[in-house]
Specification:
Elements: H1 3-14, E1 21-22, E2 31-33, E3 38-43, H2 54-62, E4 66-69, H3 79-83, H4 87-104, E5 107-113, H5 115-126, E6 132-136, H6 146-155, E7 161-163, E8 177-178, E9 180-182, H7 183-199, E10 207-212, H8 222-229, E11 235-240, H9 253-267
Parallel strand pairs: 3-4, 3-5, 5-6, 6-10, 10-11
Antiparallel strand pairs: 1-8, 2-4, 7-9
Helix pairs in contact: 4-5, 5-7, 6-7
Length: 269
């Protein structure tokens, strides 16, 4: 077989390789958008990228905020890479992004979607100067049963990942991320949840929680767990009736942003 024929076969086969990312054409890397003296750090969820928080980030930037978002280690590449990361790596990257934003801004709010919310809580437990927390569908506890979580832990050394349901990525706005849930990364999330729950009594910042009635990914009692644990005097909770887990990308996005901006303006009065 000639070399040209081999190269032709490789080229043909490469076109059939399925990319690990849903919507790979979206921008999903780190970004830092300069604005005013007030800053917002937005953290994406497990298996996602910063494309998840960009629509909300744009609204903040349009309002004059400096906005930062960071791609968590193991994300935006392959699920295999995510399975090789540790929760401490996620925390470290968030710490660095917060420190860089704090250098530029006199007041900083931290927000997150799903696992990003747990990382935001973790940051707040270390930095009392953070002005407020914006928690969207916080993944304090998964919607799976205790038996399912036990299976995840036991199977993770042997089973690479489990496929997501096709409807998991169907939202009003496009989402970018992996098509599977890597199990070792899922175990890291379980451990991060437990560690962060123990840190809740150290949190005093104002908190906004927005959850979705149709969320099948996280336990809908996650907000209650957070409010029961923190010391925050200012707490707001809102439910989106028509939205699923990715509440900052779903059909009630306009209502989510309106609630968010009213809360932030009240905090900064």
């Amino acid at each position: 077989m000639s070399r040209s024929h081999i190269n032709s076969e490789l080229a043909d086969s490469s076109t059939t390789v399925e990319l690990p990312l849903v919507n790979p054409e979206l921008e999903g890397g780190d970004f830092f958008w300069e604005g005013g003296a007030d800053g917002v750090l937005l953290l994406h969820g497990l298996t996602a990228t910063t494309a998840e928080v960009r629509p909300l980030a744009k609204r903040f930037h349009d309002e004059g905020f400096t906005v930062s978002a960071v791609l968590l280690p193991g994300h935006g590449t392959t699920p295999e890479k995510l399975n090789q990361t540790h929760r401490r790596e996620w925390v470290a990257v968030c710490e660095k992004a917060y420190a860089e934003l704090q250098k530029k801004c006199s007041r900083v709010i931290v927000g997150g979607e799903s696992t990003g919310s747990i990382l935001a809580l973790h940051l707040a437990s270390e930095h009392a100067e953070i002005k407020a927390l914006l928690l969207y569908a916080p993944a304090m506890k998964l919607a799976s049963s205790l038996l399912s979580r036990f299976f995840m832990i036991v199977a993770s050394p042997f089973v690479f990942a489990v496929p997501k349901k096709a409807e998991d990525e169907r939202n009003a706005m496009p989402w970018q991320g992996y098509k599977v849930n890597p199990l070792k990364a899922g175990v890291q999330l379980l451990k991060l949840q437990l560690e962060t729950e123990k840190r809740l009594p150290r949190i005093y910042q104002p908190i906004l929680i927005i959850q979705a009635n149709l969320d099948e990914t996280v336990d809908l009692k996650s907000g209650e767990i957070i409010f029961r644990g923190v010391q925050s005097a200012v707490r707001e909770s809102h439910w989106m009736e028509k939205s699923k887990h990715l509440v900052i990308l779903d059909q009630e996005f306009e209502e989510v942003t309106s609630i968010t901006m009213k809360f932030v303006n009240k905090i900064f009065q």
